[in-house]
Records
---
Amino acid sequence: MKDAYINRKYVIIALIGLASIVLIVRLFRIQVIETSYRLSADNNVLRYVTQYPARGLILDRNGKMLVSNQAAYDIMVIPAQTSKLDTTEFCNILGITKEIFRERLKAAIKYQKKAPSIFLKQVSAETYARFQEKMFMYSGFYVQARTLRKYTKPIGAHILGYVSEVDDNIVKREAYYKPGDYIGKSGIEEAYEEDIRGKKGVKIFLVDVYSRLKGLYEEGRRDSDAVQGKNITSSIDMDLQEYGELLMKNKSGSIVAIEPQTGEVLALVSSPNFDPGLLVGRIRSENFTKLQADSLEPLFNRALMASYPPGSTFKPIVGLIGLQENVISPSTLFACHNGYLTVACHTHESPLNLEGAIKNSCNAYFCQVFRRVLENPVYPSVPLAYIKWRSYVTEFGFGNTLGTDFVNELPGSVPERTYYDRLHNNTNWKALNILSLAIGQGELGMTPLQMANMTAAIANRGYYITPHIVKSVGESSVINDRFTEKHKIDIDSVNFEYIVNGMEMAVNEGGTAAFSALKDIVMCGKTGTAQNPHGKDHSVFIAFAPKYNPKIAIAVYVENAGFGATYAAPVASLIIEKYLKGQISNKGLEDYILNLILPKK
């Protein structure tokens, strides 16, 4: 019996000893090895301050600065650490009212009482300096450094985009963002957000009961540095962009210029526009509301989103399809008696071959080409021929988005055959029912970007590269494969030469754009007048130069301005000369456009 008692005694002692060892080991891990537990327990005396990276710079194609950064400061608050304070002095330092103070503190408490949140964002360096001197008096409040965007010149707002605070949906959807963070909106800022935003860091500070910093926790060993975002080299020529915006001042419309051989966008102007600096800092929300309410719609990017009829600038496409379908040859003649059936035309020499029809922009010629394509006996019916005609048109990038690196590009409109089936309530409609398409009217709708892309395809004699706004990201000169791929059009390259010759004649041999011919530069162009159901017709012009080895292709829309030769063609001519020669020889033409004020509607 005594032996049994002794055995039980040792068993109990052994169990107690084993439990003690386990407990000691566990405490050692918690207190010495697993410092994260201690870190969690010390949260009431530690402050985690996010280190926000500077966003990457945005440069033009020649390395000129478009967008940089400037310092700003957010006043942060941890409600649980605040104490009674002199609100009058506090509000005077920050330049706010007591009502705002109460509203902001209430919102912070509602968000999370023990976590930091923004009390007042983007205060100036002067306000920050005043607050820093007295911050020890206001426990629970501290300052967090930020950066804001800074623009070299008040240009390129629709290209560059802007930066704004994230909303709840973004915070829920993307783990990277927290309330109070900023994100790129529209333009390059949005399209390249993941590259340009950088990587956040964190610093952990020891603070005393008065919320005063006492130094880095563990001498900064648990800190991580912020990593600046990658710099973006855009394809934009800053000087050309500025000049284009100057030419479109007091006018509504758009300019898109592309380098044909690369698809790089050299300039993209949407007018009316606005100073991108208006959407920076604490004034951003107020200014954004004003811009939204502006009846002239300066926030609307006409270059990517406005769908206009192409007018006579579409005739080269009709001619190319006629050649490819073998329903005409370059020498085919058509007479014009001031129009064709219900379609009127201006007075010019007659009859004309294809090049002459381009030169003189003859409506009758292209109506007859269009009718021959759709009534081609190779196809069993006009609707089936239309399907083939439409497939050619869409190869130029019409009727779909082009797949650019712009985030708000719209597709325009090239109706499907089924649209006309429904419109005419049958499947046996005729070419004459849709004759207006022959001269770029009717249901056709193209964006200025698409028109510039079409012009680049003609300049390249049968292919285009997807337009894009960025040349390189960070240190890498490699861009997305889709911006190097050639989109070949199923039309023989030889056919493009006849169209190019006609466009050269339109400018340089007394054609419809003779007023805008350039000295020492062979520009090939096509005028257009796009019908506008809401008012005066739009002035349209497409062009490229030089004729061989072209360096620039352009589309210009000037709203409510009438004939393409009168306004759009001079604008394009000035842009092309500015880009190729760096200066303007025809100062009279320049003054004419600069001093021109056109109605907005």
Note: The first strand starts at residue 46 and ends at 51.
---
Amino acid sequence: MKKLILFICLIQILNAQSINSPNNKLTFEFKLSAIGEPTYELKLGNESIILPSKLGFVIKDQPALDNNFIVTKTETSTTNETWEPVLGEVSRIKNNYNELKVYLNQKKEKDRNLILTFRLYDEGLGFRYEFPLQDNLKHFVVADELTEFNLTGDHKTWWTPGDFDTNEYFYQTSPISKIHVGNLRRAGEIFTSSPIGNNFVQTPVQFKTSKNIYINIFEAALVNYPAMCLEINNKTFSTKSSLAPDAVGNKAYLQTPAKTPWRVIFATTDAREIVASKLVLNLNEPSKIENTSWIKATKYIGIWWGMHVGTMSWNYSDVDNVSLKTTDWKSLKPNSTHGATTKRTKEYIDFAAKHGFDAVLVEGWNVGWEDWFGKWKENVFDFVTPYPDFDVEELQKYAKSKNVKMIMHHETSASVTNYERQLDTAFQFMKKFGYDAVKSGYVGKIIPRGEFHDGQWMINHYVHVAEKAAEYQIMINPHEPVRPTGLSRTYPNWLANEAARGNEFNAWSEGNPPEHETILSFTRFLGGAMDYTPGIFEIKMEFYKNGRNTQVHTTLAKQLALYVTIYSPLQMAADLPENYERYMDAFQFIKDVPVDWSDTKILEAEPGDYLTIARKDKKSANWFLGAITDENKRETLLQLNFLDADKKYTATIYKDADDADWEKNPKAYKIETKTVSSKDKINLKLAAGGGAAISFVVK
């Protein structure tokens, strides 16, 4: 009898394991149910964050990997280290977690093995599945992932609809019980439901409990696997992973040994900790690029905004349905608005050189724009043939003489097979003419037909491009891709992504609401930098006499603040140079603000309401501050104790004027200068939809 009791106790010990976070605030527990189902739960103090939730998979043409497991071994360990990002918000990142590794065997079902790895940080949990090399599970197809995230109540939620082809929605705010995708707008279109169902949301998604606990669900290190949305149960508040399928409905094709991306749960009572967290980066592998000296933070301007406001065009000719292969482009009559001309590009290079910008982006330089959008064609662009009015060689020499780099633009029109065939040729062309950075685009339905932007095939494509670009020492900035999951640590040449509604939507759609940028920092930005393209000074589209009654939902001062609140080592001054010429005193902040930082302090944060961030320049002792608010005006008193204690600073404050308002008077701003130290305070009054930006320059 004693032996039987001892045996039962040993089984219970193996089947239930727990770990605490390094600061002991979070508690994680793993259990096997009576039928061998793997489950987990997470607590913050005495508060449940995730109720017992199941783990597992449906495997095509095989028994499911969801029950009949036994625990064969467990391992625990602690990691406490620091590492230095090539570019970033801080110079050093702490990676401190307690780990539990659980080895499972499914003896009744072909004797298959599965490893679960759980890492508990002070601000959250990361876990993933590992399939070790084994005879009974060599090549297999994932039909579904069964990971659950069962929440404790009807939490307030900041969400966008689940869509495997785009992230370009503005955020909704509602209780979980009210999440229902209907009549949501993206790029002027109206969707009656999410493309994958009425109760599916994109990750990362943020929740706030009635006890003011902030919870985020996301993923990290998305490689060789589809992106994850969440299926929401409005009544039970349970959620389950939902993966982007391929053209025949399969989710992933794996070969052992294999690992899934990390599933990530943030939990904290302090919203600032989520914005400051490096959990997603820490769950990614270290850099695979040994020599990173060529990877540079970049501030740029570009021939781009003019296309969005209607003063320029991407296309060279107004002739429709021209063929890339057969057209004699020199015989076509150019239109009067083509943006990417040699003359205009030289003017942009001059502006960049005069004001200290690193680079100039030019869109619409290569043939094919007459026949690219919505046609779902295989061979639209070749990435090496310029229009007749764009002299690549002359512009290379001119930019070099001005010490300005050129940024290449590759719009694939979602014909990804075409792009992959030409990658080497395109990158060789770039290197020949002095380009070391590329902005790529994936507008439209993916070719191969039936694939999604967020499916496994495309995930592998994005990584392939990053690796191929690194071979040529090229930095990349994909637009319309999957949202980032921290892979900028592994591939630091992957400077930024779009993967959300950027500033461009304000030019030709109903725009982004004033709260939009305050939500992004708690959601989309958790995975990496965004090429948001801030800095719009001419805010109302009626200025361009283009027939549009739209505007950027911001004040001018808020556009300055975004250079601090939105982290990116690739920042654009997005407006037209002539618009900056009219506001040179405000433009000075854009000229001064760095794009690479040694330290970052999140001073105030509340999703959907406000955000205040201070950052220290990596190349000097100067600090910069950005404060933004939603549609409500706000007053705040800021302690300057983040400044170096032994220094005096000249604070130049760019702020909303007293009568500023994002809708009624968006361009009203004023600039003040004062001497401050770390012992001082600054009172800021932010207009509705407004903001403030401050440079602190050591005296």
Note: The chain is about 15% helix and 30% strand.
---
Amino acid sequence: MQIRPEESNPLLDSALNYNFPEFGEEKGINKVVAFGDHSHKGPVYVRQTPPCTDGCPAGNDIRSWLTLVQHTEKRQRSWQQSFELAWHEASRTTPFPAVCGRVCPHPCETKCNRSKKDDGAVNIGSFERFIGDYGIHAGLRHKKLTTETKDKKVAVIGAGPAGLSCAFQLARRGFPATVFEAFERPGGMMRYGIPPYRLPRKILDAEIEAIVETGVKIVCNTVIGVDMSLDLLASEFDKVFIGIGAHVGLRLGVDGEDAANVFSAVRFLKLINSGKAVRLGSRVIVVGGGHSALVIARVARRLGSEVTVLYRRTIAEMPATEEEVHEAMAEGVDICYLLAPVGIRTENDLAAAVQCTRMQLGELDDTGRRRPIPIENSFEEVECTALILAISQHPDWKDAKRYVNSSGWLTPDENWSIGESIYAGGDIITPDRVTTAIGQGRMAAERIAALLEGGPVHPPQRPEVITEEKLRLAYYEKRKRNERRWMPIEKRFNGTVELEIDFGISEEQFRAEALRCMSCGLCFECDQCRIFCPQEAISAFPQNLIGEVMYTDYNKCIGCHICAFTCPCGYIQMGMGEGL
């Protein structure tokens, strides 16, 4: 396209008068375009971190998943080819897309720039679930980074999300990894802490099987510190990763807590998820305000009990997400705020009531929430037939206790090391999400692999996060968010916890959701820069799989800034310096 001076174009006029911010070396830009005796700013292509990846504890390159599907027709691929590519792209950072697509509270969506344009963030959670389910149904298998089997081997303690993620990443790199698991089956909290109505066991088993097929060996019913010492294990393996999780529930420290109908959250969920019968009676009290408390409440509802959750703060301070709170209330869970247990009244050696005091909120505490303060003379009782305490948990340390810090947890260094040849990740650092443990396991594996190979260990460097003000939102169409489908509430209560209630999104919705991604900070081939360049200085590199980097002929470029102004995703910036 050529535009003569006498022609008027509002977009070009606006671009030429646009006040662009200055960019320097601190932004990763140090390129200059020189013409004769003067120099000017030329376009520099700066890949940036999308906010979704910045918000993902696993470090998933979510933008690439979405872009692969979005470009299906442009790349002349079948949809199935794109789905397979997206699954393999996901498996670079996580072996559990189908699991996380169901159980992760998707903090990535909270940061998504799409929500600044229309009715909500890209539905990343449902998108990830579709990718994971496709991989299972298509029988896809992970690609290893090498066919070589290295002569160094690693032991992993704990077959939860951190341990399995670590072992998976090591196996991909050719390092034999053996996982030692204390329980009868692998999965950790994914199996023993999450009920099947949220995570069907066939889904979990399928993704673990794919991990095993990369060369990971899992040895169950083996407790390190009982069946084998940590020192012996460390002597037989070159490196050891500890990811034992936090499977011991905290206690209130009051009389009556040893009654048969009083359970910790982890004990209750382990019984339920092991298929054991648990008698709850008609009136269950759950103490706590986190995710586990609401999951337990919903499990008890499915087993036929009326359920009340007691929380000592208000809904604004609840660790559980707003979505989790609303889902629990929709299923008939009653939540009482500003009420804290201080004792248990027993009858015939069973808990009959929770003795509580009313609370009021004071100043902010170390967690950034308002501190609950007891109100004098506000004692009351709440009757119960079972009491479940979801007030936190801690690890069963065994031989790892020597590494525990003064706060009662582990504190790895920048290489995820806690001692000579010993590494750690997951809930033993602090109880958190499944996806957080997956990310920590991966990062530890990357450091372990680099150290075993004798190469330098480089901490991960992530480009600057691109925020909404760096985008040209007006370019993008408004597109309605595609929501997942749910089982009707009245059909959820059949006396078991087996019925999955989340039906995900359809293939049509999956494709439509990919189109909502704005590819923040990376070219998505909109061609705006090429179309509007008055010098015809820009062309496209062909055969780019994810995102297309445009090419600028700097002998033609006059530094007019139009390409940067028209770029909707913030990928083009104007740079200045010595040489190009």
Note: Residues 1-39, 576-580 have pLDDT under 50 and may be disordered.
